[in-house]
Structures are given as structure tokens and as C-alpha cells.
Design a protein that fits this description.
Elements lengths: L22 H16 L5 E5 L5 H5 L5 E6 L2 H8 L6 E4 L12 E7 L8 H11 E12 L6 H4 L17 H10 L2 E8 L13 H18 L11 E8 L19 E2 L5 E2 L8
Helix pairs in contact: 1-7
Length: 272
């Protein structure tokens, strides 16, 4: 399935509202809080699989923002809400960026869609600067309520979820890419209904209150098993031989065509 208009209106997106203050909006705002908290202001930030651009758009101004997605339709939509972001058509498993280009990299629910997520995570490590931050999320196979939901669990509802792995395997791949996980936590139980014949509003209030509080406040406290998604904040291992950074270039680099469907972006050393 292509990640175009049909994808963003079916499966797990079927009943999603993109409106301000919707669950989707609060989720993006939470990731924005995390990026600003752990990333350096003014650093280059890359969102992998930026989709409709709602997350990277919230990060404009605080960072130099870059968006990479495999679908031209999604990038076109993203330009409408993230007009100050440099958009790049790219496969996550082969990124057209130089080594150590970014101070912050975000991969929000992307790796589970990839046939070779280990290659993508290795690429994230390659393009992240020493001491840079990775924020990665994916469906959580260790969720306490996954067995309760059974085949109806949210992670199984999207046919493009072809690479579901237990948290231990994801963490191993992240460490293999020279990242050191700093925080590993969950996002709460929002995949209602969990109980038949109980009103959805009541289940959202009872099951989803902790995740909602975490998302709205930015106060991270939910253990890994207490949610449908695994969220990892990791820092790139520093290179002991690295010299101090060169002065930042004030000119935002532009993409140069390089091959079908991709652009090669060469970024100056500096504000990472």
C-alpha cells in the first residue's frame, strides 16, 4: 500500500481526527516537547517518515527542520503545514545525507513499516552527530493489554506493519547503531475499546487518563509495559577523537538532484 491519501484515511487512520486538540494533535505536541527538551535549540532536526508534516511543522523555529518521506503525495501535503522545512523524497533505509548531519532525529512509528528496519536504524545512527538525540517509537509487543485485545490489537490492524519486534530487539538495533538509550517508556492505553458494552468515553477516561496526562504535561512516567507504543530517547555515542564544531553556516543548504526519486543533500559542519 502506498503511503498516500488512501493510507491516511484507512486502517489505523480511519477514525483519526487531525484537528487541533485531538488525540493526534496532543501526540505530536508530546513529541515536540521531547525534541525541545533533549535537543539543542537551533540544531538541525530530521523527521524520518514525516507524513503529513504535522509534527515537524510544530518544530519549525526551534530547530532547522528537515523532513524525509518516501511518498511524494505526503511531502506535498506536508509543505502546506511545514513551509519552512526542507523536504526530501527519500527511503529511510538509504538516506541522502552526509554522516553526522543532525543533532536530533525523530522516527515516529516508521520502523515497523520497513522490510529492513535494521538498515534504517543504522542510517539514523550514521546521520546523527555525536551526542545527538534519537526519538523513536513503534508498536509495543510488551504491552500489558496486547493479549487482552488479541488479534484486534492496534499493532495488528495496519497491513503495512511488517516488522513488529519485541522491545529488546529494537533496543539491540538502536545500540548497534551507536546510540545509548536514555529513556524507554510507553504512551498509555488508548486503543479503546478494551471492554465490551462499556461506553467508549468511559474507557478513554479510565484506560487513557495516564497516557493523556503524560502527553499533555510532558512528564514522562509510564513504564514500558503500560502502553501500546514503545518510545525510546537515545543519545549518540560521542567520538573521542572529534574536534570542536566549526562555525555554523547561516545559509540553509539546498538539495541537489542525485538519481531517480532522491536528492543528495550535503550539509556544512556546524550547528548540530
Amino acid at each position: 500500500m502506498p503511503f498516500d491519501a488512501s493510507y491516511f484515511s484507512t486502517n489505523t487512520y480511519k477514525d483519526v481526527s487531525f484537528a487541533r486538540y485531538s488525540q493526534y494533535w496532543w501526540s505530536n505536541r508530546f513529541y515536540t516537547i521531547l525534541a525541545r527538551r533533549y535537543g539543542k535549540r537551533g540544531a538541525r532536526l530530521l523527521e524520518i517518515g514525516s507524513g503529513l508534516g504535522h509534527l515537524v511543522g510544530q518544530l519549525e523555529g526551534h530547530f532547522e527542520t528537515f523532513a524525509a518521506d518516501v511518498n511524494p503525495w505526503a511531502l506535498k501535503q506536508s509543505l502546506q503545514v511545514a513551509g519552512c522545512t526542507l523536504h526530501v523524497l527519500s527511503n529511510a533505509e538509504k538516506l541522502p545525507f552526509a554522516d553526522e548531519s543532525f543533532g536530533v532525529v525523530i522516527s515516529k512509528h516508521i520502523v515497523e513499516h520497513l522490510p529492513q528496519p535494521e538498515k534504517a536504524i543504522a542510517e539514523l545512527g550514521r546521520v546523527t552527530a555525536p551526542q545527538g538525540v534519537l526519538i523513536l517509537s513503534t508498536p509495543n509487543l510488551d504491552s500489558l493489554l496486547k493479549l487482552w485485545k488479541g488479534k484486534h490489537w492496534i499493532g495488528y490492524q495496519d497491513p503495512t506493519h511488517i516488522s513488529l519486534k519485541p522491545p529488546a530487539e529494537w533496543l539491540a538495533l538502536i545500540r548497534n547503531a551507536d546510540f545509548s538509550p536514555q529513556l524507554v517508556f510507553a504512551d498509555g492505553f488508548w486503543d479503546v475499546p478494551y471492554i465490551k458494552f462499556v461506553p467508549l468515553w468511559l474507557q478513554k477516561l479510565s484506560f487513557g487518563s495516564l497516557g493523556g496526562f503524560q502527553a499533555m504535561t510532558g512528564f514522562v512516567f509510564l513504564p514500558l509495559k503500560w502502553g501500546e507504543s514503545m518510545i525510546v530517547i537515545a543519545r549518540k555515542t560521542a567520538c573521542p577523537t572529534c574536534a570542536s564544531a566549526a562555525p555554523s553556516c547561516p545559509v540553509l543548504p539546498r538539495p541537489v538532484p542525485s538519481g531517480a526519486g532522491q536528492v543528495q543533500v550535503s550539509l556544512p559542519k556546524g550547528n548540530l
